[in-house]
Every structure is written in C-alpha cells, then in structure tokens.
Write a structure and sequence with these properties.
By secondary structure, the chain is an alpha+beta fold. Helix content is 34%, strand content 35%. It has one helix at 15-69; strands spanning 72-77, 80-84, 93-98, 101-106, 112-113, 120-130, 135-145, 148-157. Strands 1-2-3-4-5 form a 5-stranded antiparallel sheet, covered by helices on one side. Strands 6-7-8 form a 3-stranded antiparallel sheet, covered by helices on one side.
C-alpha cells in the first residue's frame, strides 16, 4: 500500500483571489464616484440655469408691469429708464444697471436690487418707440452666471392714464 497524503482544507483566500476582489472593488467604487460627481455637476448646471431664468423672468415682468402702468416716459437712455406713474405713492419709478445689478427705485427711494447676487446683468438697453397714437418701450436684457447666459427682448406699451 502506498501512503495516502491527507489533503489539508484551505482556510481563507489566496493572494490571487484577494487581488481580484480588490481590483473589482476599486472598479466598482470608481464607477460609483464618477456617477456621484456626474449627478453633482448636473445639479449645479440645473441650479445655475434655473437662477438665470428666474432672475430674467422676474426682472422682465417687473419692468413690463411698470411700463404698462406708466402714464409717461420721464427719461430714457441706454441702461436707465425713468417712468412717470399715475399713482403718487410710486411716482417716479426708475430702473438702472449698476455694477451688473439691475436696480429699481420707487417714489424717489433708494435703489434696490431686482436681480440676485450670483447672476450678472451684462446687457440692459431701453429704447423708446413712439408714433402718433402709441408710446412703447423696447427692452433688451441679458443675464449670465458661470459662463451661461440668457437674453430676453420685449416691447411694452404704456397704458397708464
């Protein structure tokens, strides 16, 4: 009879198995981190775009509403507009661009910002359009933040009496 050698049961993992498991774990963690960073970048882009749109919409609506209610254009030049209002509590209303911030003043009060801090108003232009029966103001505005920008151009007719 020949000698039988008893096979020893191995307890644990070999170096090769551990290396494979570690490599797979590194790949999975790298993919998860890349996915997380991608979501974060997308969220930031969406927030910036939303901030720009919100500021542009609010500023455009405020300017348009004021022009519609005005009874006359007090003065208009480039990025400055002053409107004569029928209501003495808000007369006059003025808009101006000051250090990339759109500002408003009502009834001669101090100018207050219409746009929020992270965005910049890079272009604001008011132009009067008048004929024998209609007085209106054309507005061009561009707002940007973090290399993204959005513009709006509209014309509003004065309807105040």
């Amino acid at each position: 009879m020949f000698c039988e050698q008893k096979k020893q049961k191995s307890h644990g993992y070999s170096i090769l198995e551990l290396s494979i498991y570690m490599a797979l774990l590194v790949v999975v963690l790298t993919l998860a981190a890349d996915l997380l960073f991608g979501f974060t970048r997308s969220r930031v882009k969406i927030e910036v775009s939303s901030e720009i749109q919100q500021n542009l919409r609010f500023a455009s609506e405020e300017i348009s509403r004021s022009i519609e209610q005005a009874k006359a254009i007090g003065s208009i030049s480039g990025s400055n507009l002053t409107l004569t209002m029928p209501d003495t509590t808000s007369d006059p209303i003025s808009f101006r661009l000051n250090n990339y911030v759109l500002e408003i003043s009502k009834a001669g009060s101090a100018f207050a910002p219409l746009t929020t801090q992270p965005v910049k108003v890079t272009n604001l232009n008011f132009g009067a359009i008048a004929n024998s029966t209609v007085r209106s103001v054309q507005v061009k505005i561009t707002i940007e933040s973090q290399n993204k920008s959005q513009s709006n151009q509209f014309t509003t007719v004065l309807r105040g009496k």
